[in-house]
Amino acid sequence: MLSFYFSKNLRPIHGFVSGSWNIHLLIAPNTPPIKKFFSSKSFVLEDSNNRSIDCAPKIDTLSSKKVQNTELVKTLLRNYGFTNTQISKLVDVDPNILFCNPQKTILPKLEFFRSIGLSSNDIPRVICASYCQALLSRSLENQLIPCYNFLKSVLFLDQNVIKMLKHSPRVLLFNVEKILAPNIATLREAGVPQSVISFTMYRSPSTLFHESHKFKGGVNKAIEMGFNPQRSIFAHAVQVLCDMRESTFERKKEVYGRWGLSNDEILLAFRSHPMCMNLSEEKIMETMDFLVNRMGWQAAVVARCPVVLFFNLERRIIPRCTVVKILLTKELVKKDLRLTTFLIPREEVFLDRFVNKYQDDVPGLKNIYLRKMGLVEPRLGSKI
Protein backbone atom coordinates (compact mmCIF):
# COMPACT_ATOMS: atom_id res chain seq x y z
CA MET A 1 0.00 0.00 0.00
CA LEU A 2 1.11 3.54 0.68
CA SER A 3 3.49 4.87 3.24
CA PHE A 4 4.62 8.32 4.23
CA TYR A 5 8.02 9.94 4.59
CA PHE A 6 8.91 13.03 6.54
CA SER A 7 11.90 15.20 5.85
CA LYS A 8 12.46 15.68 9.58
CA ASN A 9 10.98 14.81 12.94
CA LEU A 10 8.73 17.59 14.15
CA ARG A 11 9.12 18.69 17.74
CA PRO A 12 8.24 21.83 19.66
CA ILE A 13 11.00 24.44 19.39
CA HIS A 14 12.07 26.05 22.68
CA GLY A 15 8.91 24.73 24.29
CA PHE A 16 6.64 26.04 21.56
CA VAL A 17 5.76 24.77 18.11
CA SER A 18 7.33 26.48 15.14
CA GLY A 19 5.26 27.42 12.14
CA SER A 20 7.85 25.99 9.74
CA TRP A 21 6.94 22.59 8.30
CA ASN A 22 8.50 20.46 5.60
CA ILE A 23 6.65 17.19 5.19
CA HIS A 24 6.41 15.01 2.12
CA LEU A 25 3.80 12.43 1.20
CA LEU A 26 5.19 9.78 -1.12
CA ILE A 27 4.25 6.39 -2.48
CA ALA A 28 6.53 3.81 -0.96
CA PRO A 29 9.15 2.17 -3.17
CA ASN A 30 8.02 -1.01 -4.90
CA THR A 31 4.39 -0.12 -4.26
CA PRO A 32 2.12 -0.84 -7.25
CA PRO A 33 0.99 2.31 -9.05
CA ILE A 34 -2.23 3.70 -7.68
CA LYS A 35 -4.11 2.84 -10.88
CA LYS A 36 -3.52 -0.87 -10.24
CA PHE A 37 -5.84 -0.72 -7.24
CA PHE A 38 -8.76 0.00 -9.55
CA SER A 39 -10.23 -1.84 -12.47
CA SER A 40 -10.36 0.03 -15.72
CA LYS A 41 -14.05 -0.89 -15.91
CA SER A 42 -15.35 -0.34 -12.41
CA PHE A 43 -14.36 0.05 -8.81
CA VAL A 44 -16.07 0.15 -5.45
CA LEU A 45 -15.86 2.85 -2.79
CA GLU A 46 -17.50 3.11 0.60
CA ASP A 47 -19.91 5.93 1.27
CA SER A 48 -20.12 7.77 4.61
CA ASN A 49 -22.24 4.93 6.03
CA ASN A 50 -19.71 2.27 5.00
CA ARG A 51 -22.04 1.01 2.26
CA SER A 52 -20.48 -0.20 -0.95
CA ILE A 53 -21.13 2.00 -3.95
CA ASP A 54 -20.52 0.85 -7.48
CA CYS A 55 -18.90 3.81 -9.15
CA ALA A 56 -18.69 2.32 -12.62
CA PRO A 57 -21.44 4.51 -14.08
CA LYS A 58 -19.72 7.61 -12.76
CA ILE A 59 -16.11 6.73 -13.48
CA ASP A 60 -16.11 8.77 -16.63
CA THR A 61 -16.99 11.88 -14.67
CA LEU A 62 -14.25 11.40 -12.11
CA SER A 63 -10.75 12.24 -13.07
CA SER A 64 -8.15 9.65 -12.22
CA LYS A 65 -6.40 12.36 -10.24
CA LYS A 66 -9.39 12.78 -7.95
CA VAL A 67 -9.73 9.03 -7.49
CA GLN A 68 -6.08 8.72 -6.61
CA ASN A 69 -6.33 11.70 -4.27
CA THR A 70 -9.32 10.20 -2.45
CA GLU A 71 -7.43 6.99 -1.78
CA LEU A 72 -4.35 8.91 -0.65
CA VAL A 73 -6.46 10.80 1.89
CA LYS A 74 -8.12 7.64 3.18
CA THR A 75 -4.85 5.76 3.43
CA LEU A 76 -3.16 8.65 5.20
CA LEU A 77 -5.94 8.83 7.78
CA ARG A 78 -5.90 5.06 8.30
CA ASN A 79 -2.13 5.17 8.85
CA TYR A 80 -2.75 7.64 11.67
CA GLY A 81 -5.22 5.35 13.39
CA PHE A 82 -8.54 6.49 11.91
CA THR A 83 -11.17 3.81 11.44
CA ASN A 84 -13.52 3.73 8.47
CA THR A 85 -16.31 5.00 10.73
CA GLN A 86 -14.21 7.95 11.85
CA ILE A 87 -13.23 8.76 8.28
CA SER A 88 -16.91 8.70 7.34
CA LYS A 89 -17.65 11.22 10.10
CA LEU A 90 -14.99 13.54 8.76
CA VAL A 91 -16.35 13.23 5.23
CA ASP A 92 -19.91 13.86 6.44
CA VAL A 93 -18.81 17.17 7.95
CA ASP A 94 -16.47 18.19 5.16
CA PRO A 95 -16.80 16.14 1.94
CA ASN A 96 -14.11 18.26 0.31
CA ILE A 97 -11.51 16.69 2.57
CA LEU A 98 -11.31 13.79 0.12
CA PHE A 99 -10.25 16.14 -2.66
CA CYS A 100 -7.77 18.33 -0.81
CA ASN A 101 -4.02 18.01 -1.18
CA PRO A 102 -3.19 15.51 1.59
CA GLN A 103 0.47 16.52 1.66
CA LYS A 104 -0.26 20.21 2.17
CA THR A 105 -3.58 20.15 4.02
CA ILE A 106 -3.83 17.03 6.19
CA LEU A 107 -0.39 15.54 6.80
CA PRO A 108 1.20 18.61 8.46
CA LYS A 109 -1.69 18.81 10.92
CA LEU A 110 -1.53 15.14 11.80
CA GLU A 111 2.20 15.45 12.37
CA PHE A 112 1.60 18.56 14.45
CA PHE A 113 -0.75 16.64 16.75
CA ARG A 114 1.76 13.82 16.98
CA SER A 115 4.64 16.21 17.72
CA ILE A 116 2.88 17.79 20.72
CA GLY A 117 2.39 14.39 22.33
CA LEU A 118 -0.96 13.01 21.18
CA SER A 119 -0.80 9.25 20.69
CA SER A 120 -2.05 7.35 17.65
CA ASN A 121 -5.22 6.58 19.62
CA ASP A 122 -5.65 10.17 20.80
CA ILE A 123 -5.35 11.86 17.41
CA PRO A 124 -8.50 10.33 15.84
CA ARG A 125 -10.47 10.82 19.07
CA VAL A 126 -9.52 14.49 19.30
CA ILE A 127 -10.21 15.25 15.64
CA CYS A 128 -13.45 13.25 15.51
CA ALA A 129 -14.83 14.62 18.77
CA SER A 130 -18.16 16.41 18.60
CA TYR A 131 -17.86 19.79 16.87
CA CYS A 132 -14.19 19.14 16.06
CA GLN A 133 -14.37 17.34 12.73
CA ALA A 134 -13.45 20.62 11.05
CA LEU A 135 -10.03 20.73 12.74
CA LEU A 136 -8.29 19.39 9.65
CA SER A 137 -9.64 22.28 7.60
CA ARG A 138 -8.32 24.92 10.02
CA SER A 139 -5.09 26.73 9.29
CA LEU A 140 -2.08 25.19 10.97
CA GLU A 141 -0.04 28.40 11.08
CA ASN A 142 -2.90 30.80 11.84
CA GLN A 143 -5.08 28.73 14.17
CA LEU A 144 -3.76 25.42 15.53
CA ILE A 145 -0.18 26.42 16.34
CA PRO A 146 -1.06 29.83 17.88
CA CYS A 147 -3.78 28.20 19.97
CA TYR A 148 -1.45 25.46 21.18
CA ASN A 149 1.28 27.97 22.02
CA PHE A 150 -1.19 30.08 23.98
CA LEU A 151 -2.41 27.07 25.94
CA LYS A 152 1.21 26.14 26.63
CA SER A 153 1.91 29.66 27.92
CA VAL A 154 -0.98 29.30 30.38
CA LEU A 155 -0.61 25.66 31.42
CA PHE A 156 3.21 25.55 31.15
CA LEU A 157 3.65 21.82 30.47
CA ASP A 158 2.94 19.79 27.33
CA GLN A 159 1.15 17.12 29.35
CA ASN A 160 -1.15 19.77 30.79
CA VAL A 161 -2.10 20.95 27.30
CA ILE A 162 -2.66 17.36 26.19
CA LYS A 163 -4.90 16.79 29.22
CA MET A 164 -7.04 19.75 28.22
CA LEU A 165 -7.17 18.78 24.55
CA LYS A 166 -8.39 15.30 25.45
CA HIS A 167 -11.11 16.77 27.64
CA SER A 168 -12.16 19.58 25.30
CA PRO A 169 -10.54 19.55 21.85
CA ARG A 170 -12.97 22.29 20.82
CA VAL A 171 -10.58 24.79 22.36
CA LEU A 172 -8.49 24.53 19.18
CA LEU A 173 -11.36 26.04 17.19
CA PHE A 174 -11.53 29.31 19.12
CA ASN A 175 -9.78 32.57 18.36
CA VAL A 176 -6.92 33.19 20.77
CA GLU A 177 -6.80 36.98 20.48
CA LYS A 178 -10.55 37.60 20.63
CA ILE A 179 -11.76 34.88 23.01
CA LEU A 180 -9.21 32.86 24.96
CA ALA A 181 -6.55 35.45 25.81
CA PRO A 182 -9.01 38.16 26.98
CA ASN A 183 -10.90 35.67 29.17
CA ILE A 184 -7.73 34.38 30.83
CA ALA A 185 -6.67 37.99 31.38
CA THR A 186 -10.05 38.70 33.02
CA LEU A 187 -9.50 35.85 35.48
CA ARG A 188 -6.05 37.11 36.39
CA GLU A 189 -7.30 40.67 36.83
CA ALA A 190 -9.94 39.33 39.23
CA GLY A 191 -7.24 37.74 41.36
CA VAL A 192 -7.86 34.16 40.27
CA PRO A 193 -4.69 32.11 41.01
CA GLN A 194 -3.01 29.84 38.50
CA SER A 195 -4.36 26.73 40.24
CA VAL A 196 -7.97 27.85 39.70
CA ILE A 197 -7.24 28.93 36.11
CA SER A 198 -5.85 25.46 35.41
CA PHE A 199 -8.85 23.89 37.14
CA THR A 200 -11.18 25.92 34.91
CA MET A 201 -9.34 24.85 31.77
CA TYR A 202 -9.41 21.18 32.76
CA ARG A 203 -12.87 20.85 34.30
CA SER A 204 -15.05 23.46 32.59
CA PRO A 205 -13.12 24.75 29.56
CA SER A 206 -16.33 25.67 27.74
CA THR A 207 -16.65 28.54 30.23
CA LEU A 208 -13.72 30.18 28.45
CA PHE A 209 -15.39 29.97 25.05
CA HIS A 210 -17.85 32.80 25.72
CA GLU A 211 -17.37 36.22 24.19
CA SER A 212 -15.13 38.35 26.37
CA HIS A 213 -17.80 40.85 27.45
CA LYS A 214 -20.15 38.07 28.57
CA PHE A 215 -17.34 36.23 30.34
CA LYS A 216 -16.27 39.37 32.18
CA GLY A 217 -19.87 39.94 33.23
CA GLY A 218 -20.04 36.41 34.66
CA VAL A 219 -16.80 36.91 36.60
CA ASN A 220 -17.96 40.24 38.05
CA LYS A 221 -21.36 38.78 38.96
CA ALA A 222 -19.75 35.85 40.78
CA ILE A 223 -17.62 38.24 42.83
CA GLU A 224 -20.69 40.36 43.65
CA MET A 225 -22.51 37.25 44.86
CA GLY A 226 -19.75 36.53 47.34
CA PHE A 227 -17.68 33.85 45.61
CA ASN A 228 -13.99 33.79 46.49
CA PRO A 229 -11.82 33.93 43.32
CA GLN A 230 -9.15 32.01 45.22
CA ARG A 231 -11.29 28.86 45.34
CA SER A 232 -12.12 26.41 42.56
CA ILE A 233 -15.86 26.74 43.21
CA PHE A 234 -15.52 30.22 41.71
CA ALA A 235 -14.97 28.56 38.32
CA HIS A 236 -18.26 26.66 38.64
CA ALA A 237 -20.12 29.85 39.54
CA VAL A 238 -18.71 31.66 36.50
CA GLN A 239 -19.66 28.70 34.32
CA VAL A 240 -23.30 28.78 35.47
CA LEU A 241 -23.57 32.55 35.22
CA CYS A 242 -22.08 32.58 31.71
CA ASP A 243 -23.99 29.58 30.36
CA MET A 244 -27.39 30.51 31.78
CA ARG A 245 -29.59 33.38 30.67
CA GLU A 246 -30.43 35.83 33.42
CA SER A 247 -34.15 35.13 32.93
CA THR A 248 -33.53 31.40 33.41
CA PHE A 249 -31.49 32.06 36.54
CA GLU A 250 -34.33 34.15 37.99
CA ARG A 251 -36.85 31.44 37.12
CA LYS A 252 -34.79 28.83 39.01
CA LYS A 253 -34.68 31.17 42.01
CA GLU A 254 -38.46 31.38 41.83
CA VAL A 255 -38.71 27.56 41.85
CA TYR A 256 -36.64 27.34 45.03
CA GLY A 257 -38.63 30.25 46.45
CA ARG A 258 -41.84 28.20 46.23
CA TRP A 259 -40.56 26.25 49.22
CA GLY A 260 -40.39 29.32 51.37
CA LEU A 261 -36.70 29.98 50.85
CA SER A 262 -35.60 33.60 51.08
CA ASN A 263 -33.26 35.21 48.55
CA ASP A 264 -30.44 34.90 51.08
CA GLU A 265 -31.12 31.17 51.57
CA ILE A 266 -31.23 30.61 47.81
CA LEU A 267 -27.97 32.51 47.41
CA LEU A 268 -26.48 30.40 50.20
CA ALA A 269 -27.43 27.25 48.29
CA PHE A 270 -25.93 28.66 45.09
CA ARG A 271 -22.70 29.59 46.87
CA SER A 272 -22.52 26.10 48.34
CA HIS A 273 -23.11 24.30 45.04
CA PRO A 274 -23.48 26.57 41.96
CA MET A 275 -24.66 23.70 39.77
CA CYS A 276 -27.89 23.49 41.78
CA MET A 277 -29.20 26.14 39.37
CA ASN A 278 -28.67 23.73 36.47
CA LEU A 279 -31.16 21.22 37.85
CA SER A 280 -34.49 21.02 36.03
CA GLU A 281 -37.60 22.44 37.66
CA GLU A 282 -39.09 18.94 37.77
CA LYS A 283 -36.05 17.51 39.57
CA ILE A 284 -36.01 20.34 42.12
CA MET A 285 -39.74 20.06 42.85
CA GLU A 286 -39.82 16.25 43.13
CA THR A 287 -36.85 16.02 45.46
CA MET A 288 -37.90 18.95 47.63
CA ASP A 289 -41.43 17.52 47.86
CA PHE A 290 -40.11 14.22 49.18
CA LEU A 291 -37.58 15.69 51.62
CA VAL A 292 -39.84 18.44 52.95
CA ASN A 293 -43.38 17.05 52.75
CA ARG A 294 -42.78 13.34 53.24
CA MET A 295 -39.65 13.30 55.38
CA GLY A 296 -40.32 16.46 57.35
CA TRP A 297 -37.02 18.29 56.82
CA GLN A 298 -37.18 22.05 56.61
CA ALA A 299 -36.50 23.58 53.20
CA ALA A 300 -33.77 25.74 54.73
CA VAL A 301 -32.00 22.58 55.94
CA VAL A 302 -31.99 21.21 52.39
CA ALA A 303 -30.75 24.55 51.05
CA ARG A 304 -27.71 24.32 53.30
CA CYS A 305 -26.63 21.09 51.58
CA PRO A 306 -27.97 21.36 48.00
CA VAL A 307 -25.71 18.54 46.83
CA VAL A 308 -28.40 16.09 47.99
CA LEU A 309 -30.70 17.38 45.24
CA PHE A 310 -28.42 15.82 42.63
CA PHE A 311 -28.91 12.25 43.84
CA ASN A 312 -31.34 9.88 42.16
CA LEU A 313 -34.65 10.06 43.99
CA GLU A 314 -35.78 6.46 43.46
CA ARG A 315 -32.42 4.72 43.69
CA ARG A 316 -30.77 6.66 46.49
CA ILE A 317 -32.81 9.27 48.33
CA ILE A 318 -36.03 7.31 48.96
CA PRO A 319 -34.36 4.00 49.98
CA ARG A 320 -31.92 5.67 52.36
CA CYS A 321 -34.50 8.03 53.84
CA THR A 322 -36.83 5.07 54.43
CA VAL A 323 -34.16 3.34 56.50
CA VAL A 324 -33.29 6.49 58.44
CA LYS A 325 -36.96 7.21 59.14
CA ILE A 326 -37.33 3.76 60.70
CA LEU A 327 -34.22 4.32 62.82
CA LEU A 328 -35.50 7.74 63.91
CA THR A 329 -38.86 6.26 64.89
CA LYS A 330 -37.12 3.68 67.07
CA GLU A 331 -34.78 6.38 68.44
CA LEU A 332 -31.72 4.47 67.25
CA VAL A 333 -30.15 7.57 65.68
CA LYS A 334 -30.10 11.23 66.73
CA LYS A 335 -32.98 13.44 65.67
CA ASP A 336 -30.59 16.12 64.41
CA LEU A 337 -29.00 13.73 61.90
CA ARG A 338 -27.80 15.72 58.91
CA LEU A 339 -28.90 14.82 55.39
CA THR A 340 -25.33 14.70 54.16
CA THR A 341 -24.44 12.12 56.83
CA PHE A 342 -26.46 9.39 55.17
CA LEU A 343 -27.06 10.59 51.59
CA ILE A 344 -23.48 11.35 50.55
CA PRO A 345 -21.52 8.23 51.71
CA ARG A 346 -20.80 5.40 49.28
CA GLU A 347 -23.16 2.43 49.25
CA GLU A 348 -20.89 0.19 51.34
CA VAL A 349 -20.43 2.90 53.96
CA PHE A 350 -24.16 3.57 54.22
CA LEU A 351 -24.90 -0.15 54.63
CA ASP A 352 -22.32 -0.49 57.41
CA ARG A 353 -23.44 2.61 59.31
CA PHE A 354 -27.20 2.49 58.95
CA VAL A 355 -28.29 -1.00 57.88
CA ASN A 356 -25.97 -3.78 59.00
CA LYS A 357 -25.32 -2.07 62.33
CA TYR A 358 -29.02 -2.21 63.27
CA GLN A 359 -30.03 -5.59 61.86
CA ASP A 360 -30.57 -7.02 65.36
CA ASP A 361 -32.60 -4.00 66.46
CA VAL A 362 -34.71 -3.94 63.30
CA PRO A 363 -34.99 -7.44 61.80
CA GLY A 364 -35.49 -7.31 58.05
CA LEU A 365 -34.10 -3.77 57.75
CA LYS A 366 -31.82 -4.79 54.89
CA ASN A 367 -34.69 -6.38 52.97
CA ILE A 368 -36.72 -3.20 53.41
CA TYR A 369 -33.82 -1.20 51.98
CA LEU A 370 -33.31 -3.59 49.07
CA ARG A 371 -37.03 -3.52 48.22
CA LYS A 372 -36.94 0.27 48.07
CA MET A 373 -33.92 -0.04 45.80
CA GLY A 374 -35.96 -2.34 43.58
CA LEU A 375 -33.47 -5.18 44.07
CA VAL A 376 -35.95 -7.66 45.60
CA GLU A 377 -39.66 -8.17 45.06
CA PRO A 378 -41.89 -6.69 47.80
CA ARG A 379 -43.67 -9.24 49.93
CA LEU A 380 -47.43 -9.55 49.53
CA GLY A 381 -49.16 -7.11 51.85
CA SER A 382 -46.00 -5.14 52.64
CA LYS A 383 -46.74 -1.48 53.35
CA ILE A 384 -43.17 -0.24 53.75
TrEMBL record:
Instruction: Tell me which InterPro entries the record gives.
Output: MTERF, MTERF_sf
Superkingdom assignment = Eukaryota
Q: Name one GO molecular function term.
A: nucleic acid binding
What Pfam families does the annotation carry?
Answer: mTERF
| Keyword list, A-Z | Transcription, Transcription regulation, Transcription termination, Transit peptide
The biological processes this protein is annotated with in GO are: DNA-templated transcription termination
Q: Family per UniProt?
A: Belongs to the mTERF family.
The name of this protein is Uncharacterized protein
Per the UniProt entry, what species is this protein from, by scientific name? Camellia sinensis var. sinensis
